[in-house]
């Protein structure tokens, strides 16, 4: 498939949005909540009718979870320079526990805002940021623990259920809603769609088993949940580097990622104009945005890890929190005593953030300042409702290093920090590996559940083998499906370019689709209510040779259609009862249909005679030759 060129500018990206989000045979629909401004989006895939001798039999539309935000709504005009609608602004204002600041609190943020050299790069339509009033805590966990159901929690409940309970009484969905029993491996999944209530969401947030990453300054956000007892989510990474990629290209990658199904995005920029790039992404993102603040703090030192200070890092946290970043990766578990444990590893410390903090600890022979200042970090987090993504800075970089003392020592420290964050009512998820062979994955999940008190686990893969450069989206997708079933709440995607270079748009697409497959496979295995609906609909379409429905119900209709048409390009092939794999004479599904038709056409006497012969055969011992 031809690789597409990145957008040269925001104008060219805007002009192409309608084409990018033209999902085939789909409509944007909304579930209405308890108030007019709670309208939860989903995508509905329309199906064609089944042709029978008695006439066409209609097939019902299939609802699917949607991450594309307003971009796929034909009634919404997208203006990237103005940003998306401020969906949550009224909810936040109504709570009365925040205040609009007179200006930016971060020294660096003020410097960037006043620097004429970056004026042409800045997002123009900025408003002053919000912060919690003195003594207030504005985290979703804080509200949940006080018995308050926020609009964000109601939004999540409707989004997770897709209102599937309304379909169970409709005869056209009866067969499609059949589902194999799942094995949730100890998780407390809701049994039916109607069990996914706002109160259920509140309880999960209050317990720490789930988070709703939703900074009060990211009002464009469509709330979502990350937790073991919800749908498995996926994260897509983007970010500029000192070597390649432009500001417009990074915004395009965000838009491209949510088009294919990314639930959150991490901006891992390390090159020029990190601040401005992040602002453009946030103002145009309907999904949570995460960052690794230590990257930008390091950039402020000119790349010298030893020159990092707590004051510099603190300013970076405030700068990003006031822009609206929803979760921070904080490598506070890389302790001085763990660094020597990596000396005998094959690949040492492979996390950028982990290596930065390890170098700082060794240079100063002091404990990690992220660890020693953790309570102060919590104070910042709860003032803006930024969630922790506690970083696995000592994750294994190859399967030979998996599950070693450094990795699991850090994990136990992350559990200690989780308990400390929860005392502040700050939301937490835990990052995990990495490179782990299949037989060692379960131990990672068990250790996380035990030592981190069921806080959501967020893993990079894991990659289950190291022999496939260029195919690590597959090696990691295998591990992701497994650990997702075992209880991981969010899977960080890996692209084919992993270990090789910065991914482009098509690499992002490949990684997202691979991880959508892994997450969906995990949902099926766990028994998420209604997870099998789309599978059943596609299987029925396949058996009935409804080719267009097969394409449209898939995760990547464009690719499915192109593969089919590569060998059977004629329009008539879209209604043919075979594909190029078996041809018209050897198609098993066509033969099965013929057998069914033949059996149905037999006279009752003939059927009875066959049944009698069957009984006679069984009575004689089922021997072919007597």
From TrEMBL:
Gene Ontology cellular-component annotations: cytosol
Binding site for Zn(2+): 435, 499
Molecular function in Gene Ontology: 4 iron, 4 sulfur cluster binding; phosphomethylpyrimidine synthase activity; zinc ion binding
Signal peptide segment: none
Residues where [4Fe-4S] cluster binds: 579, 582, 587
EC number: 4.1.99.17
Pfam families hit by this protein: ThiC-associated, ThiC_Rad_SAM
GO biological process: thiamine biosynthetic process; thiamine diphosphate biosynthetic process
Cofactor note: Binds 1 [4Fe-4S] cluster per subunit. The cluster is coordinated with 3 cysteines and an exchangeable S-adenosyl-L-methionine.
Residue span, ThiC-associated domain: 23-99
InterPro entries: ThiC (IPR037509), ThiC-associated_dom (IPR025747), ThiC/Bza_core_dom (IPR038521), ThiC/BzaA/B (IPR002817)
Recorded catalytic activity of this chain's protein: 5-amino-1-(5-phospho-beta-D-ribosyl)imidazole + S-adenosyl-L-methionine = 4-amino-2-methyl-5-(phosphooxymethyl)pyrimidine + CO + 5'-deoxyadenosine + formate + L-methionine + 3 H(+)
Cofactor(s) annotated in UniProt: [4Fe-4S] cluster
Function: Catalyzes the synthesis of the hydroxymethylpyrimidine phosphate (HMP-P) moiety of thiamine from aminoimidazole ribotide (AIR) in a radical S-adenosyl-L-methionine (SAM)-dependent reaction.
Classification via PANTHER family: PHOSPHOMETHYLPYRIMIDINE SYNTHASE, CHLOROPLASTIC, THIAMINE BIOSYNTHESIS PROTEIN THIC
Subunit (UniProt): Homodimer.
HAMAP family assigned: ThiC
Family: Belongs to the ThiC family.
Identification of the protein by name: Phosphomethylpyrimidine synthase
Protein species of origin: Cupriavidus oxalaticus
Organism placement in taxonomy: Bacteria, Pseudomonadati, Pseudomonadota, Betaproteobacteria, Burkholderiales
Gene name of the record: thiC
């Amino acid at each position: 498939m031809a690789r597409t060129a990145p957008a040269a500018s925001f104008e060219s990206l805007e002009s192409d949005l309608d084409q990018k989000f033209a999902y085939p045979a789909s409509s944007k629909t909304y579930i209405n909540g308890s108030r007019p401004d709670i309208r939860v989006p989903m995508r509905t895939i329309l199906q064609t009718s089944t042709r029978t001798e008695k006439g066409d039999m209609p097939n019902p539309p299939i609802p699917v979870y949607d991450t594309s935000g307003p971009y796929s709504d034909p009634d919404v005009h997208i203006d990237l320079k103005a940003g998306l609608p401020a969906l949550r602004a009224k909810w936040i204002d109504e709570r009365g526990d925040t205040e609009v600041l007179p200006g930016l609190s971060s020294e660096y943020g003020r410097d960037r805002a006043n620097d004429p050299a970056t004026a042409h790069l800045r997002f123009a339509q900025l408003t002053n940021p919000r912060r919690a009033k003195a003594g207030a805590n504005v985290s979703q966990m804080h509200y949940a623990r006080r018995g308050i159901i926020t609009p964000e929690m109601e939004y999540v409940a409707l989004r997770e259920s897709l209102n599937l309970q309304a379909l169970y009484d409709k005869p056209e969905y009866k067969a499609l809603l059949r589902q194999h029993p799942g094995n949730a491996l100890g998780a407390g999944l809701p049994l039916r769609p109607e069990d996914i209530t706002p109160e259920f969401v509140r309880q999960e947030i209050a317990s720490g088993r789930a988070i709703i990453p939703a900074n009060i300054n990211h009002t464009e956000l469509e709330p979502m949940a990350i937790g073991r007892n919800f749908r498995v989510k996926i994260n897509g990474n983007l970010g500029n580097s000192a070597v390649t990629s432009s500001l417009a290209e990074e915004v395009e990658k965000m838009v491209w990622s949510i088009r294919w199904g990314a639930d959150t995005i991490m901006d891992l920029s390390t090159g020029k104009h990190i601040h401005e790039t992040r602002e453009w992404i946030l103002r145009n993102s309907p999904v949570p945005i995460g960052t690794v603040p230590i990257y930008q703090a390091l950039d402020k030192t000119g790349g010298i890890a030893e020159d990092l200070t707590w004051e510099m890092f603190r300013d970076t946290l405030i700068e990003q929190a006031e822009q609206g970043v929803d979760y921070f990766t904080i490598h506070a578990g890389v302790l001085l005593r763990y660094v020597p444990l990596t000396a005998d590893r094959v690949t040492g410390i492979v996390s950028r953030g982990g290596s930065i903090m390890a170098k700082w600890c060794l240079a100063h022979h002091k404990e990690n300042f992220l660890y020693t200042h953790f309570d102060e970090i919590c104070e910042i987090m709860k003032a803006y409702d930024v969630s922790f993504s506690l970083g696995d800075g000592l994750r294994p970089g190859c399967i030979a290093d998996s599950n070693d003392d450094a990795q699991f020592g850090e994990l136990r420290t992350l559990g200690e920090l989780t308990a400390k964050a929860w005392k502040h009512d700050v939301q937490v998820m835990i990052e995990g590996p990495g490179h782990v062979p299949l037989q060692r994955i379960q131990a990672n999940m068990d250790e996380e559940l035990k030592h981190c008190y069921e806080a959501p686990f967020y893993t990079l893969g894991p990659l289950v083998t190291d022999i496939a450069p260029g195919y690590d989206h597959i090696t990691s997708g295998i591990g992701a499906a497994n650990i997702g079933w075992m209880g991981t709440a969010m899977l960080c995607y890996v692209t084919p370019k992993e270990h090789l270079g910065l991914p482009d748009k098509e690499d992002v697409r490949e990684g997202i689709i691979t991880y959508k497959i892994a997450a969906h496979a995990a949902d099926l295995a766990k028994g998420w209510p209604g997870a099998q609906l789309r599978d059943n609909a596609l299987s029925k379409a396949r058996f009935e040779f409804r080719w267009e429905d097969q394409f449209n119900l898939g995760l990547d209709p464009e690719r499915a259609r192109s593969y089919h048409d590569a060998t059977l390009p004629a329009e008539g092939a879209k209604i043919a009862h075979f594909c190029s794999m078996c041809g018209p004479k050897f198609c098993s599904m066509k033969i099965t249909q013929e057998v069914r038709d033949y059996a149905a056409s037999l006279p009752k006497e003939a059927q009875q005679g066959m049944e009698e012969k069957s009984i006679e055969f069984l009575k004689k011992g089922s021997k072919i030759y007597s």
